[in-house]
Amino acid sequence: MISADLALALPEILLAAASMALLMFGAYGGEDARAGQITTIMAALLVALGLNAALGVADARSAFGGAFVVDGFSRFAKALILLSAGIMLILSRDYMQRRGLLRFEYPVLIGLATLGMLVMVSAGDLMTLYMGLELQSLALYVVAALRRDGARSTEAGLKYFVLGALSSGLLLYGCSLIYGYTGSTNFAAIAQVVTAEGVGLGLLFGLVFLCAGLAFKVSAAPFHMWTPDVYEGAPTPVTAFFATAPKVAAGVLFARVLYDAFGDAADQWRQIIVFVALMSMFWGSVAAIGQSNLKRLMAYSSIGHMGFALVGLAAGTEAGASALLVYLAIYVVMNVGVFAFLMTMERDGRPVLQIEDLAGLASRAPGQALALGALMFSLAGIPPLGGFFAKYFVFVAAVEAGLAPLAVAGAIASVIGAFYYLRIVKIMYVDAEGEPLDGAMPLMNGAALAVSAVLISVGWLPFLDGFGLTLAGDAAAQALLR
């Protein structure tokens, strides 16, 4: 019944209604004068919906003829997406206000992009997939170019739009081929055809195009070309948002499509994912070494980390899906802490984001340096921090699936990537003190930095045992049983 379907999609309906209401509230209520209030309301709504997703019942149910799926897999992802989006919106308010960038449309666009992500991770049909993906993308194109008078921001938005349109075309062409050779856009129906008839050449081409479009959205090599410029050109809070919620949405959507629709064709799509994972791990690790800008460094870091996450996906097993979810959760926590700090890096009221600007930070702000250092060690995969176990889980899943060479390659890429993370720690603690940064860290940013550092240092054990590892395993099992 339609009422039951609507009830299942109630969080998405509430977010859509709130976004439109806040848009009208801002447009007819003094515009940017109410931007702060709209930001606070939207952030509170996102956090509330995120907590609801985290605490909700994880029974697998579908709506609208199977086009919209709610299960443990999607709830896990929605909790991460909503909470990270809400936290980033909270952290960005002070930064955007001080630079005159906080306009009422900013939180509304973040809300609409988040809505698209929620639809993506609940997609049970190619049409739903594309609708959610484009809703997210159209909002993010505008957010990337939010600094209207900045050449870099405009360039970032334009590059993201042009390359995003190309990737959307590839994905849509892949969807059309899949529909043509299976006669359906529903994942369950596609899975039945694949089980009965296998994957022919035409369907394989469709799968390749589909994976190429999704690899762009997750910023995996060789479809990563937009990432460094967009990360550098967009305002730092926007970059922080790009580095968290959209990664989770794209990664989970990748798994949703391959597991639900092509679960019996793992031998065909595994080769694609292995290639993309290898390219991403090594390109992200090597290209970041020469970077001097922290945002560009984090862009290449994200490319590398998405490669590690895809190692779990390549396994094609329940353990691999569980490892993917855990990896994304720990990756989000690490990025929240790092970007909470990057938003506060200023000198004479202007943002500074060069690595050498961190010189001597340990002597000026030992607490901040300790927390940032812990996050860098975790990103590098140094035990016993959370980042090490994130990589450990995906490597174990790969080995159990017969992909031991991929796990070995991932370990080598991790060692290479550790160089640029450890270089940041060395600059903070060893290099001569440079010109100090401005002022004290805002309370919210300091809290986000501290909590993130604690979670990945000593707090990840109860985190994984509670909402993380156990729930991720249950969620992955639900995805595989569909």
UniProtKB/TrEMBL annotation:
Protein name from the UniProt record: NADH-quinone oxidoreductase subunit N
EC number: 7.1.1.-
Cross-referenced InterPro entries: NADH-Q_OxRdtase_suN/2, ND/Mrp_TM
GO process annotations (BP): ATP synthesis coupled electron transport
Keyword NAD carried by entry: yes
Topology term for the membrane: Multi-pass membrane protein
NADH:quinone oxidoreductase/Mrp antiporter transmembrane domain residues: 123-417
Subcellular location, record wording: Cell membrane; Endomembrane system; Membrane
Self-association and partners: NDH-1 is composed of 14 different subunits. Subunits NuoA, H, J, K, L, M, N constitute the membrane sector of the complex.
This protein's record includes keyword Cell inner membrane: no
Pfam families: Proton_antipo_M
Taxonomic placement: Bacteria, Pseudomonadati, Pseudomonadota, Alphaproteobacteria, Rhodobacterales
GO molecular function, one term: NADH dehydrogenase (quinone) (non-electrogenic) activity
One Gene Ontology cellular component annotation held by this UniProt entry: plasma membrane
Keywords: Cell membrane, Membrane, NAD, Quinone, Translocase, Transmembrane, Transmembrane helix, Transport, Ubiquinone
Catalytic reactions of this protein: a quinone + NADH + 5 H(+)(in) = a quinol + NAD(+) + 4 H(+)(out)
Record family assignment: Belongs to the complex I subunit 2 family.
Function: NDH-1 shuttles electrons from NADH, via FMN and iron-sulfur (Fe-S) centers, to quinones in the respiratory chain. The immediate electron acceptor for the enzyme in this species is believed to be ubiquinone. Couples the redox reaction to proton translocation (for every two electrons transferred, four hydrogen ions are translocated across the cytoplasmic membrane), and thus conserves the redox energy in a proton gradient.
Chief localisation class: membrane
Membrane-crossing segments per the record: 6-28, 35-55, 75-92, 104-123, 158-181, 187-216, 237-259, 271-290, 297-315, 321-344, 365-386, 392-422, 443-463
